[in-house]
Amino acid sequence: xIRVSNLSKTYLIWRTPFSRLFVPLVVRLLRPFFPxxxxxxxxxxxxxxxxxxxxxxxxxxxNSLGIIGLNGSGKSTLxxxxxxxxxxxxxxxxxxGRVAALLELGSGFDPEFSGRENIxxxxxxLGLTRAEIDARYDAIVAFADIxxxxxxxxxxxxxxxxVRLAFAVQVHxxxxxxxxxxxxxxxxxxxxxxxxxxxxxxxxxxxTLLFVGHDLSAVRSFCNQAILLDKGQxxxxxxxDDVIAxxxxxxxxxxxxxxxxxxxxxxxxxxxxxxxxxxxxxxxxEMGQHATLAFNQxxxxxxxxxxxxxxxxxxxxxxIIDNRGMQLTGKRITIPRFNGEKRVSINMACGFQKGIxxxxxxxxxxxxIEQTLLMSRYDDLLxxxxxxxxxxxxxxxxxxxxxxxxxSADRVD
Length: 413
What we know:
By secondary structure, the protein is of the alpha/beta class. The protein folds into two domains: about 200 residues, P-loop containing nucleotide triphosphate hydrolases (Rossmann fold, 3-Layer(aba) Sandwich); about 130 residues, Coagulation Factor XIII, Chain A, domain 1, CATH 2.70.50. Helices cover about 30% and strands about 35% of the residues. The protein is built from nine helices and 19 strands. The strands form four sheets. Strands 10, 11, 13, 15, 16, 18 and 19 form a seven-stranded mixed beta sheet that branches. The model has no long low-confidence stretch (mean pLDDT about 85).
């Protein structure tokens, strides 16, 4: 559905508006006679910014691709080129079918027109006939949930109302390709949940998804492929968990370098760690690195930690993660300061619903919750398989303590 081949994009940043007008004219006229002068003039008056460089990937029909990266890595530029709102400097993009793109807040809306009028304009641009828009209009308005504002000018909308209406139009045109940028982060929690449920629904119909965002849980949930962009280049592609691990390493490497002098952080097969504060080994006692359990069966986790550097407030964080990457619960464990290697043993009763879960281990320096510095992280060392179906005892993934009392219902008139 989407094929991106050797795609590059360069922005020209001119020193002044006059340079933007004058220099290209001079260069065009004088280049045949004074090539060195023209080159020097252009270099002095214009700076080239490489936003994308030699990007290649393809997405098959019905698949979903997550694009992640640090701010300024070229994610939004890439999506704009694929959506057709920006032209590449070189390379090519092939997209098949109807494309719906939610790239920027209210992009394509005329602020003077009402929400109703903008629905018809945008849906028409996306290829729907008047009759098709009429048939879907009520569903779009109900999903946007902006009340009487639907008949008011869009310039009177809040940012949340605008993104709700824009998203509602895009997802109700039955697109073959849906492109979603980070605009969803503007909506409130209720809208975000509704939007993510809608994305899941259209994916089941076979729509191809291109998703950009810093919500790594959403990338894990909706995408079966992922790429990591850094400084305009694809530095990693593959399964979402593998790409996310590289992204987290990239983020943490920069943060550790900024906050700590001389610490060496390195990527490894299972995660990343600071040299001198690391997990040497983690195993379930008598079970190894994969445990198969019945409901509420006890489990002992032994974690060997090496600490040969000075860490002011060391802590071990143990998280339980479901198969979609969502954190279910966890525990922060204070580590006594020492020099050398020690083992901590954690005894836990696994009261989870049937399924496979992962145990994530993190070593942090945490003077406070707000000042937590992640120093080592392992997502795929350990797994737990619950084999007992206990849906008759509780709903969801794990129970919470409840007491149940029955009494006569004495009503007051």
